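#struct-pred
JK: can someone run the complex with 4'-deoxy-4'-aminopyridoxal-5'-phosphate? inputs below
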Amino acid sequence: MSRIIYMNGDLVPEEEATISVFDHGFLYGDGVFEGIRAYDGRIFRLKEHIDRLYESAHCIMLDIPLTPEEMEQAVIDTVNANELSDAYIRLVVSRGKGDLGLNPKNCPGCQIVIIAGKITIFPEERYTEGIEAVTVPTRRNVVGALDPRIKSLNYLNNILAHIEAARAGAREALLLNSEGYVTEGAADNIFVYRRGILWTPPVYVGILEGITREAVMRLAREEGIPVEESPITRHDVYTSDECFVTGTAAEIMPIVEVDGRSIGTGKPGPLTQQLTRRYRELVVEEGAPLS
Ligand code: PMP
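RT: done, structure tokens with the ligand placed:
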């Protein structure tokens, strides 16, 4: 079935949604994006995703000719045009068509594309059994070069990590920063529960400021669990009682083995399960209604 795509203000069939080969998103990875999810007719944390998109765009000096409110409406319209109530939404803003040089001044206007499709949910046993992770040789981009807080169209750092984990037979990659601190997964944030405290790395070590991460920190505090944003090392991960990663697509995914060391009992722990239950309640309770 052909999808309806939002392109620069129009809703068009996917066959007509085409981008120039001179688009700097294609030529240079010059642009920003968001991955958003709708549950049961509500878009989860839509405003937060749009705010992060505009922050990323501001940092790369990309002017988006819509107000954030207009962008929210465009997302809602795209999901409705595809008659979806559960959806995965990809919002992309590229620098637009330019010449073969990298100067963004030669790109007169950005391209705004919104794709809404059915969500492919991970098999349930990954949640009930947990998955293995490995630390990968590729280090997370350093904050002083390309800050991982910018959700840019250049995801090579993450893709290399993903390839390296897959080659090692693991489903998740953990990236260290240049100093050896644990940053995050290839497309997810990491949490460890150790000695009664839930730890997650702070943004300054080089991570995307995940929206699921924020929601999970809030849920944990509501459940009376102390939460600390503090640098963690591989030692903290290996010796944790529980470990999980969070992201819009994965939600809360238990990690039961890291670099061959089993985590806790080697099964998803009680806190991970409790937070998963609470998160699954939250996503259907909250969110911008589609109609
Ligand atoms: N880190 C990276 C590198 C990501 O790409 C993502 C999003 N897929 C996340 C973390 C999780 O962010 P969010 O919870 O906002 O989806």
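RT: quick notes.
The CA atoms of residues 195 and 241 lie 8 Å apart.
The helical segments are 24-28, 46-59, 68-81, 124-129, 156-167, 211-222, 234-238, 270-285.
JK: thanks, will look after standup
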